[in-house]
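Assemble and predict.
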Amino acid sequence: MRILLLTHAFNSLTQRLSAELQQLGHQISIEFDIADSVTEEAVALFAPDLIVAPYLRRAIPESIWSRIVCLIVHPGVVGDRGPSALDWAIQNQETDWGVTVLQATAEMDAGPVWASVTFAMRGASKSSLYRHEVTQAACSAVLQALRRFESGSFVPQPAETLPRPHGQWRPLMRQSERSLDWQRDSSATVLNKLYAADGFPGVADSLFGQPCHLFDAWPEATLRGTPGTVIARRETALLRATADGAVWIGHIKRAGSIKLPATLAFPEDSESLPQQGLPSWWRSATPTWQDIAYEEAGQLGFLFFEFYNGAMSSSQCDRLRAALHWAKLRPTKVLLLMGGDDFWSNGIHLNVIEAASLSGGSAADESLRNINAINDLALELINTEQQFTVAALGGNAGAGGCFLARACDLVWVREAVLLNPHYKNMGNLYGSEYWTYLLPRRMGSGAAQAIMRERQPMTARHALQTGFTDACVDGELQAFRAEVAQRAAALAAEPDLAQRLAAKRESRQYDEAIKPLAAYREEELTQMRRNFYGFDPSYHIARHHFVRKSPASWTPRHLARHRDLGWKLS
Ligand code: COA
C-alpha cells in the first residue's frame, strides 16, 4: 500500500513505524502537520491508500478524513480521549494502559476503533513509557489495523460498543493539577507527579526563589532534610527534601531558558550546596541518583550510563572515560557498555553546548570540547586490549552515539531499538567519533557514504543485515539484558579467548600502521572545525532550533518522498 505518515515530528515512534512498514513492502512517505493546505497538497501528490498519524497535536481536516481513511494512534485504552492520555494514566496510577488506533472523524479521538493493544504500567517517567511500552503497543496495533484494512472486510466499531471500554474524555492536564507541595507530599507523590510530566511539559515549581520547570526525577533511599529545602548536589543533579525523604532532580528549565542539567541551570546556587558524591563507580546498594554505575558478574563487567535523553556533555564523557579506564583494570574478560534504559547514546550534548552561548561563552568552543571528550572516550574503547568490549543497546542511539557503540568490538542491539547512524540532520554536521575509521571497515566505503547521505533511521534487524551491528536480540529491556549477559558469559568461556584477544591487538596494530587513529581524528576535526567556526552557520542554526523545539515549517525532502519529482518511478 501507499501510506502517508502524517505527524507533528519525525519522532522515535514515527521513525519506527516508517522503518517497519517499509520492511513490509509498503511505500511510505512522510508529511509534517504544518497547515491543512500543506497536508492537502501532500495527499494530492502522493495519493495514499491510507493515512497513519502516529503523533499529531491537532485534528486532521475534514477535507482529508472524509475522503481517505486516516488512522490515529492514541496513547490510551479504548474509550480514552484527550491530549494528556499518558499523563493522567501515570498520575492516576493505572495498573494497565494501552494504545488505540482509531479512525479520524469530526470529534477528537472519538472515531471507530481499528485496533487496540494493552500493556502493564511500570513505575517510570512518561517519556520512558512512551519509548518502550507505548511504542511497542503502537507498532503492534498499527500493524493489526493495516491487516484489517487490507482485508477489506473489517468494519471498525465505536469504542462504546466494544467490550470493557474503560477510558473516558480527559482534558489537557493543567499545571495546577501537577503542582508539588514539598511540605506535605511524600517522595512517592513527588516522583509520580514528575514522572507524569517528563520530558514535556515538566512540573512548574520554583527553586532558589526562581520560577522553573522540573524534569528527570530519581528516588533517594537514605538522605533526609527539612521538607522543601535543596539539601545537596551530586555531579549534575540536585537533591530536594520531601515530607518523608528526598528526591533527586536531574534537569530543570528556567523561565525563558532551555532544559539543562540541574546544576547548570542554577550554577551559583548549586555551588554552595554540599556535594554528596558516591564513594566509587560500583552501583549503590540503595536507590539514589547515579548516572554511571558498574556491576560485575564472574568474568563480566557491566558499565551503565544513564544520561538523560542519551546526551553526553564534555564532563559526562570525561567521567565515563574515567569509569571505563577503571573498569578495564578489573579482572574481567568481557566488558559490556550498557548505556541507559531509554537511550544508549545520542552523541554530544546539544543543550549544554547551547547553554555555553547563553552564558556569554562560545557554543563553537564548547562543541569542540565536547567532540574531543567523546572522541577520547571512543579512543579509550577502541584501545581496550585485555577485554572484549560489547555495546549492548537496550535503548535507541543516534548520531555520534551509534559510532561510539561501534568503537566496541561487538554491537548487540535489542530488536525494538532504532539507530540513526548519521549526522547531517544537525545542520550538515560532518561528525567525528572515528566514524571514518569505524564505519567503512564494517560496511565498505560506498555503503558508509550511503548511510550518511540518506539519513534514514535503521531498525535493529536492518542494522544487522547491513553489517553495521553484530546481533539483534529479542525481548523487553530486562529480558534483553539477561540474554546479553548469557551471550557474554559464553564469549568469556570460549577456550580460544586469549588467542582472539591477541588477534584483536594485532589487527589494531596493523590498522594503526596503515593509518593512525590520530590521522582519522584530525581529518574529522578539520571538517568539524569548519562546522563550528566556518562561514556556514547551519549547525548553529539547526542546534538552536533543536534545543528550543522550534516547530517545523516544512518537511525535509529526504522524508517527504512525494515531493521528489521522480518518486513515482522509484
Ligand atoms: N543533545 C541534547 N538533547 C538531545 C540530544 C542531544 N544530542 N539528542 C536527543 N536529545 C533530546 C531531545 O531534545 C528531546 O528532549 P526533550 O526530552 O526535552 O523533548 C529528547 O532527547 C528526545 O529526543 P527526540 O528527538 O524526541 O527523540 P527521538 O527518539 O524521537 O529522536 C534522535 C532521536 C537521535 C533522532 C534525535 O533526538 C536527534 O536527532 N538527536 C540529535 C542527535 C545529534 O545530532 N547529536 C549531535 C551530533 S553527535
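The CA atoms of residues 317 and 374 lie 6 Å apart.
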